[in-house]
Amino acid sequence: MTEQNLLLQILKKPTAMLDLDVRDWNRVLFDAHMLKLRGRLAHDAYTQGLWKKLPLKVQQILVSAKIDAEAKQRKIMWEINRIRRALHGFEDKVILVKGGAYMAKGLQCAAGRTSVDIDILVTKNNLDIVENHLLVSGYSSQVLNEYDQQYYREWAHELPPLRHPDRMIEVDVHHTILQVTNKFSPNINLMISSAVQLEDNIYLLSDEDMLLHSIVHLFVDGTIKSSLRNLLEQHDLITEFSVDPAFWSRFMDRAEQLNFARPVYYCLRYCRHFLNTNIPEKVMIRAKKAAPGLLASKLMDLMVFRVMIPYGDGQSKLTDYLATNGLYMRSHWLRMPPLMLALHLTRKFYRRFVISSSTAKKSS
């Protein structure tokens, strides 16, 4: 295996850590740091009984990552407690999603994970009520610009981020999982109605919906660059949930019901390619029915293979640039209609370059 793939090799087979020399470790630790996976390496080394066999300097680096991940997870769990307190008396569902949900459920994909925010999902008609509860409890909006406030409230899938000044953990209140103008935007009521109670009015998405949310977050709403951690998250969810023999049938039915068959195809394809995820052949055959045409598939492969781990030696900066920007434009193309996209990007360009340049000249 080539040097730039060493991190992948270790994620798939942690005992491969024992075969690394100093040069290999430099490469692996750099990639793991850039991709936010040092905490995961530390977890795997501990649980696989490899820790004492690692070089002392590697132990020192990874123990720092382990402590950092554990500290941030404690902060996230405490913030969940504070949200419950702030929403005392609110009787409808408050659904934890993404990292907070993985930690609260104790899933494998939370191992060594660092998160700096919490995402919750509520019905759209409850947005004002939930926001008011949080504001009264001391949270404040992090978006002050009038245009951005309007954009969030009219077109986005969430409120402007909120943060408590004492704890500095950002809370994102969602009313759906994709921007309302996104062509893949689902019937969110189906996901909310299937949520599973965790404690009091705190809920989690069902296993199928939890995996689907992770998939669309990466392959529909995300730009994919440097997203190996997200793909590993999906690999872990698949591995853990598919222990149930009925999972695959429920999952594929749900993907088609919510119009997520295409992003599911990408997830399964790239999980297999990068992480050797165990996916039954009959599932892959069903998923391929939603694959794009040959040209689009080849183009997607060229871009994703290039940027999922973009820091390897010897890679062309030009092809990396083209792939990165191609996937960036793809994410925006899915996010909103062409005219709205053009107006939005023009507005952002004007604010970023014209206004900022004018301000800089005045200050000088």
Describe the structure.
By secondary structure, the chain is α/β, with parallel strands linked by helices. It has one domain (3-363). Helix content is 59%, strand content 7%. It has 16 helices and seven strands. A seven-stranded mixed β-sheet has the order 3-4-5-2-1-7-6, with helices on one face. Helix 3 (38-47) packs across helix 4, helix 9 (207-219) runs antiparallel to helix 10 and helix 14 packs across helix 15 (317-335). The longest helix has 31 residues, at 56-86. The mean pLDDT is 90.
Layout of SSEs?
Elements: H1 6-12, H2 22-34, H3 38-47, H4 56-86, E1 94-97, H5 99-105, E2 117-121, H6 127-136, E3 140-141, H7 146-154, E4 162-163, E5 170-174, H8 188-193, E6 196-199, E7 202-204, H9 207-219, H10 228-241, H11 247-257, H12 261-275, H13 281-288, H14 294-307, H15 317-335, H16 338-363
Parallel strand pairs: 1-7, 2-5
Antiparallel strand pairs: 1-2, 3-4, 4-5, 6-7
Helix pairs in contact: 3-4, 9-10, 9-11, 9-12, 10-12, 14-15
